[in-house]
Fold these 2 entries.
Entry 1:
Amino acid sequence: MKIARVSVNNRRKAFEIRAGRHTYVFPYARLEIRPTTSDRVCEAHVDDELGSEAFSYTLESGRQGSVHLDHVLEYNRDPTYMRDLLLYQLTLEAQRRLPRSPLSRREMIRRLRTSPAQFYRLLDQTNYKKSVDRMLSLLRILDCDVELLVKTRAA
């Protein structure tokens, strides 16, 4: 996903980022280089050098900072981003447990009822087209129990 535009809202003390079909808010409080009342944000732009996947901002003092879109999506708890993050974490766990498994890869493929190519796609952490259920099936074969914790958000 690419950032289409970014605007500064000093009154709200936040950036407004347009990416895809959504507009996200990212507060100044989450920045590494934070503006103050005497050193406000004077300019923000989509950073082409970062592949339009980040934006840069400049304070009145001349200090500069950048924010990647992943930080914005994580702050806003974007469902697609959170799903991809979950798949990434499940994949890394499967990769860590694979060498310790007593089963051969051929046996894992047989138990998953899939092809070798699909099995290796499951182990690819950059592949986000796989399903969470297939990852859970693989982790089950690797003798893992995955628990999903649902809790009330803190205020």
Note: The longest strand covers residues 3-9.
Entry 2:
Amino acid sequence: MKRSCLYTVLLFALACTLAACRNEPPAEPAAAYDAYGAALTDEGAMPVQAVVAQRERYVGQTVKVEGTVAAVCQARGCWLTLQTSDGNNVRVVVPRTEDGSDYVFTVPMDISGRRVVVEGTLAEETLSAAAHHHLAEDAGADPGEEAREPVQELQLTARGVLVEKV
């Protein structure tokens, strides 16, 4: 009986050792992010600056970009901007539901400075001076005197957003 107990203990120890030595698959990239909207991964994401530099190639296309959040709508989390080196940030907007009564999803309002991956359709938009003023207020900034001219900006209508966990 003692011999069978010894074999059982040895088999158990061997099984534990083999289990500890097995190759674990790497953690999924999504585990490093909080996800909002449609499911996506960070695979194939381009730096936002690369898309801005070749905007004519990407306008009207679905793109996946990565970048650092410059600002977030402080009213609802319905848009954010991605920093670019030329100071012309790309605005990421969340689409509205079919009936227009709400947003498909929103993002946390405290993610400025964090890395994100966004997939969506890129467009060049012209904002009226009033719309630009409103967005500045939503960002929590003092818009000062309203601009008198419309403002051109790149917008990415998001299908999904990954926010890097801290």
Note: The first strand starts at residue 33 and ends at 37.
